[in-house]
Design goal:
The structure holds two protein chains of two kinds.
Chain A lengths: L9 E10 L2 E11 L4 E5 L6 H9 L6 E6 L2 E2 L10 E4 L11 H11 L4 H14 L15 H13 L5 E5 L7 H18 L2 E6 L2 H7 L2 E6 L2 E6 L1 H6 L4 H6 L4 E11 L2 E6 L2 E5 L8 E7 L5 E3 L7 E12 L4 E7 L4 E6 L1 H10 L2 E6 L5 E4 L4
Parallel strand pairs in A: 3-8, 3-9, 6-7, 7-8
Antiparallel strand pairs in A: 1-2, 1-4, 4-5, 9-10, 11-12, 11-14, 12-13, 14-20, 15-19, 16-17, 16-19, 17-18
Helix pairs in contact in A: 2-3, 2-4, 3-4, 4-5
Chain B lengths: L4 H35 L6 H8 L1 H34 L2 H12 L6 H12 L4 H8 L13 H25 L3 H9 L4 H12 L1 H16 L3 H7 L6 H11 L3 H25 L7
The chains are: A alpha+beta, B mainly alpha.
Chain lengths: ~375, ~280
């Protein structure tokens, strides 16, 4: 149904938006590739939804230009952009049946009755709504309404599909199911997807690239593993998941990386320290640290005392305090956590040199 | 909305005086009217039989239904346009619309009817102006006929038609309209295929209120109809106060009340009372 070449390539050039004195979006430049699944991630008020509305054409940017396949569409009204859009709360037409909802964009485009019938039938099948064609949206479950919204937005073969927190109203298990379904729809249609969410795990699981927003600024764009493992700054590091921050003194370049003192013990880091000299923060994800009975020469390590644990089923989250009072969280096998807690005294908190990254001291 | 028992008791206590007033001032006296319709001048169904055979009464009934239908169409259409501006216009437009909706409530129905006479009569503003620009040579008959009645009644009823529409338009999810536009629908098409159908309950409520009100109109048709376009309420008045034919007047009243009651019952099957304000 979808020609792969039809997926749109979008270029945002210096986009800014002010609402009165409030700066919603500041000097945003971003290239969205053909057929990409890009997630716009950030807390509420970060500008991600404003950017989506600018892409859809519902909001006019105060400055900057927007291009679709090289054509300037900055001033093109929403109804002529042919972007599919799925809204928070779905925004289905309550007075139309499932079938009529899905047929709407085709009717607007004056397709023949026969074509509308075939394409709606295909789409109903594809999103698994067979047997529900004649129902009104109010007679459907949340997940089914979501499917109608997706079908309606994809049926006319849009170059780009815009999704505004589409899963926020669904419970957790349904969410997972819909996420998988959306990934499948993305592969099948080959359309460019731009997806807004404030849920970092959703962003990491779904996207080919993640764009992280805060206070109207685009902070970083990259593949999920890039932004997770090498965040550009402290906000990105913390927003993408739990992370430990350890102060490191006297950082200087060394063979394949950098070296410094953490709680008076020498630590090696594989990450680059070009811009960072002297004091810095070493950031390490909880799953990259482990607990050992004693120090080892192959790994970085500092002494800490286990203070509390949270059982998570597959693993246990263990809270520790280092000698100098830093709070650290590690994710460890359940029995390791139990052993560490029962000992009561100090254990070794270890991590390999290739894990973790350096941030400027106190830097944002 | 379902409150606790004491909440509902409290509401009942607050509602009681209104109910009592309605029973004493309307329901009880009306039972007397019902009695007249069966007893005057002689006991029996004679007056109802007369209703079915009297051509004058029937022509007044038909005229009343026709005028009410036209007034409803005119009022709801005009009110729809005004409400769109009131609910969805720019801040300045909203204030202007609100002013236009509320001011008529402060002016008595009598004043307004005479105002229309001044505008529409043979030597009224409209005819004089049309003659002065040479558009017409003889004055148009704009008043003392159905046209004048329809103009005056619509003018009175438009503000009442606005509120159910406003309620429907305010509760409409803005994102549905954005969705329609995002899917490629022009503003015009979105208005007709999404906005209007989604305000259906408001249109029904508005039409019913206007229609029911129109059926019982007295002052406006009496003044603007000039005795040539008599509607039901005026006919009842004439039967009771001018030709002492209380029995027939009472029977017409009963038929009107039953008819309006049936319409209201129909209305509340489709629209909840809170959607009307």
């Amino acid at each position: 149904m979808q020609q792969p070449g039809r997926a749109a390539e979008i270029k945002a050039n210096g986009i800014g938006k002010s609402f009165g004195s409030f700066r919603a979006l500041d000097n945003l430049s971003l290239d969205i590739g053909r057929g990409e699944f890009l997630t716009l991630l950030g807390p509420s008020g970060s500008g991600k939804t404003t950017f989506l509305m600018i892409l859809a054409g519902f909001v006019q940017p105060s400055e900057g230009k927007l291009f679709s396949d090289g054509v300037d569409i900055t001033n093109r009204p929403a109804e002529q952009r042919a972007a599919g859009m799925v809204f928070q709360g779905y925004a289905l037409f309550p007075h139309m049946s499932v079938e009529q909802n899905i047929a709407f964009p085709l009717k607007v485009r004056k397709k023949s009755a026969a074509e509308i019938k075939t394409r709606v039938g295909e789409m109903v099948e594809r999103v698994g709504l067979k047997g529900h064609e004649k129902k009104l949206p109010a007679q459907l479950s949340g997940g089914q309404q979501q499917r109608v919204a997706l079908a309606r937005a994809l049926v006319f073969g849009p170059g780009v599909l815009l999704l505004d927190e589409p899963f926020s109203a669904l419970d957790k298990s349904l969410r997972g199911q819909m996420q998988a379904e959306m990934k499948r729809l993305h592969q099948e249609t080959g359309t460019t997807f731009v997806f807004v969410t404030h849920d970092q795990s959703e962003a990491l699981a779904l996207s080919s690239r993640v764009a992280i927003f805060n206070h109207g600024k685009l902070l970083q764009v990259g593949r999920p593993d890039e932004v997770y493992d090498r965040p550009a700054n402290r906000f990105v590091a913390e927003f993408l998941g739990e992370i430990n921050m350890l102060p490191v003194k006297g950082v200087r370049p060394a063979d394949n990386g950098a070296t410094g003192l953490c709680e008076d013990r020498a630590v090696n880091m594989r990450c680059k320290a070009e811009a960072i000299k002297g004091d810095a923060i070493l950031a390490i994800r909880p799953e990259d640290m482990s607990i050992a009975p004693e120090a080892s020469v192959n790994q970085n390590g500092i002494a800490a005392t286990a203070v509390a644990s949270t059982y998570l089923g597959a693993a246990t989250k263990l809270d520790l305090t280092t000698r100098q009072g830093a709070k650290v969280t590690v994710s460890v096998p359940n029995e390791v956590a139990a052993a560490a807690l029962s000992k009561g005294n100090s254990v070794w908190l270890t991590w390999p040199a290739e894990k973790g990254f350096l941030l400027p001291d106190g830097g944002q | 909305m379902r409150g606790t028992l004491s909440d509902r008791m409290g509401a009942a206590v607050l509602m009681a005086p209104l109910l009592l007033f309605l029973i004493l001032a309307y329901a009880w006296p009306f039972l007397g009217v019902v009695k007249w319709s069966f007893t005057l001048p002689t006991p029996g169904l004679g007056q109802y039989h007369a209703l079915l055979t009297d051509e004058l009464v029937q022509s007044v009934f038909i005229r009343t239904l026709r005028i009410a239908a036209i007034v409803t169409l005119v009022s709801v259409t005009a009110a729809y346009a005004i409400t769109v501006v009131w609910v969805r216009g720019s801040p300045v437009q909203r204030v202007l619309a609100e002013f236009c909706i509320l001011v008529p409530f402060w002016i008595s129905v009598l004043t307004r009817a005479f105002g229309w006479v001044a505008l529409l009569s043979n030597r009224g503003l409209i005819n004089t102006w049309l003659q002065s620009i040479g558009f017409i040579s003889e004055p148009l008959t704009l008043v003392r006929n159905e046209f004048g009645v329809i103009v005056g009644m619509s003018h009175f009823l438009i503000p009442f038609a606005v509120f159910p529409l406003a309620s429907a338009m305010r509760s409409l999810d803005e994102r549905v309209l954005l969705a329609a536009r995002g899917l490629g629908s022009s503003r015009m098409r979105t208005f007709w295929t999404v906005f209007v159908p989604m305000t259906r309950s408001g249109i029904i409520g508005s039409a019913m209120i206007t229609f029911v009100f129109s059926l019982g109109f007295f002052v406006t048709p009496a003044i603007l109809g000039g005795g040539r376009s008599v509607m039901i309420a005026e006919l009842i008045y004439l039967r009771i106060f001018q030709s002492p034919d209380w029995g027939l007047g009472a029977a017409i009243s009963v038929v009107l009340v039953v008819f309006v009651g049936a319409l209201m019952a129909l209305l509340f099957r489709y629209v909840k009372p809170k959607q009307l304000v």
